[in-house]
C-alpha cells in the first residue's frame, strides 16, 4: 500500500508521541513504535514557528512549515491525505473544518472541539465534504475498556439499566491542569470537556447509546484563590509563585527537591527528539499556578445522565484525590459488572497492581472474574493499538467492537461535557438536543 501523507496542525507533545516520532521510526524511542513504512509527515503548521523548526532540527529533516493563515497554501503545496488536528483544543474546529472544505480527511485529537456550536459546525462541514473526520479516543483501546465492551456486546448484562462511574484524578495529575491552559474554558471547554470527554465517550461506547438529559452539581473546592491549601490565604500574605510552591502541599508532595519527578506520560518528556520550545503556545514564564484568582472552572463534579435508550448514569469526577483511576459498576437486566482501575499505580499511596479484574455477577448464578493486564506503551497500551488502527489497518477486533470514532461520537462526548458545566452554572437540567440539534 502507498504511504499516507500527514499534515500536522499543532506541534504538541501529543503530536510528537502519536505521529511525528512513530512516523519517523526513532530507534532511541521504541516505546512509540516504528510506522515509518506506512506514512510520512509532509507538513507542519503551528502558531509558534519555533516548534516545527525544532522538529526539523531534532530529526535532521526539512519538512515544510506553515502558519495558521497558510492552511490553504499548505494543502495545495503538500497534498496531504490527512490533516491532523493536535494543537490546543480551541484550534481543532478551525483545522477540522478547513480540512473538510478542502476534501481532505481529518484526524482529530480529543476533544474534537470545545463546545456544541463548534461540534455542529464540524458536522455541517462534514456533510458538505467528500472527506470525513476521525476522533482519537484512545481510552477505547485500553484492554479493560475493550473487555467491558465485549461483555456488554455479547449480552451478558442484558439491557443496561444504569451505570455508576466515579473517576479520580490524583494530587499530581489533577493539579497539573490548573497550571496549564487547560484551566481556561475558552481554550479547553473546561475539564468536563477537555478531560471528562474521555469518560463520557467510554460510557456512550460501552452501552452503544447517546445521552439525552443531564443534571449536575460542581464547584471549585481545591484550587483557585480560595483554596484551603493556598499559602497566601492561610498566612494572609501575597506570596509570589516561587514562595507559594515552597509552602504548597501539592508541590511539596510531588516536586520537592529530594523526590524523583513523578511518572506521567502527559507531563514529563525528557528526550532530545521530543524537546520543543515553549514560547507562544506554552509559555511557562507566565507564572501560572494552582491558586491563581483567574481560575473559574470547577474541580469537582457530580452528574446524573439519562440515555435515549432508557439507561441512566451517575457520574463523578474529582481532580484532587489520593489515587488516580476509576470505580465502575454497570447493571443490566441479566446481571452486574464491577471493576476498579488504577491509572497510575506507581503513584498510589498503597500497593496497587496494573492488573485489573472485571467481575461479572449473573442475576441468578455464580460470579465470573475476568483478569486484564495493561500492556506497555502510552495509556496502558492503548496508544500502540490506536496507532496500528491509524497507520496500518483496522484490526478485526477493532471492527467487531466499533473502535473507530467519528464526528457523531466526538460531538456527543463534547455535548455531555457542555451539558454538565451548563447545568452547574444554571442549576437546571440540560437537554442534549437543545445544545446539539443533530
Write a structural description.
This protein has helices at 13-24, 50-59, 71-78, 92-101, 116-128, 143-153, 173-176, 185-188, 191-194, 196-207, 231-235, 241-247, 249-255, 378-391, 396-401, 407-426, 432-435; strands at residues 4-9, 39-45, 65-66, 82-85, 105-109, 133-136, 160-170, 211-219, 300-307, 312-321, 325-332, 335-342, 355-362, 368-373, 430-431. It has 438 residues and is α/β, with parallel strands linked by helices. It has a domain at 4-138: NAD(P)-binding Rossmann-like Domain (Rossmann fold), CATH 3.40.50.720. A 9-stranded mixed β-sheet has the order 14-13-12-11-7-10-9-8-15. It has a 6-stranded parallel β-sheet with strand order 3-2-1-4-5-6, with helices on both faces. β13 (355-362) and β14 (368-373) form a beta hairpin. α4 runs parallel beside α5, α5 packs antiparallel against α16 and α6 (143-153) packs parallel to α10. The two termini are 36 Å apart.
List its traits:
alpha/beta, 438 residues, 34% helix, Rossmann fold
Summarize the structure.
The protein is α/β, with parallel strands linked by helices. The chain has helices spanning 13-24, 50-59, 71-78, 92-101, 116-128, 143-153, 173-176, 185-188, 191-194, 196-207, 231-235, 241-247, 249-255, 378-391, 396-401, 407-426, 432-435, and strands spanning 4-9, 39-45, 65-66, 82-85, 105-109, 133-136, 160-170, 211-219, 300-307, 312-321, 325-332, 335-342, 355-362, 368-373, 430-431. The chain is globular, with a radius of gyration of 22 Å.
Shape descriptor: globular
What is the strand content?
Answer: 15-25%
Spatial arrangement of strands, main beta sheet? 14-13-12-11-7-10-9-8-15
Q: What is the mean predicted local confidence, pLDDT?
A: 93
> How many individual β-strands?
15
Supply the helix-strand structural class: alpha/beta
Proportion of residues in helical segments: 25-40%
Helix segment tally: 17
The radius of gyration is 22 Å
> Unreliable stretches, pLDDT < 50, 5 or more residues?
none
User: At the fourth CATH level, what is the homologous superfamily of the domain at 4-138?
Assistant: NAD(P)-binding Rossmann-like Domain
CATH class of the domain at 4-138: Alpha Beta
> End-to-end distance, in Å?
36 Å
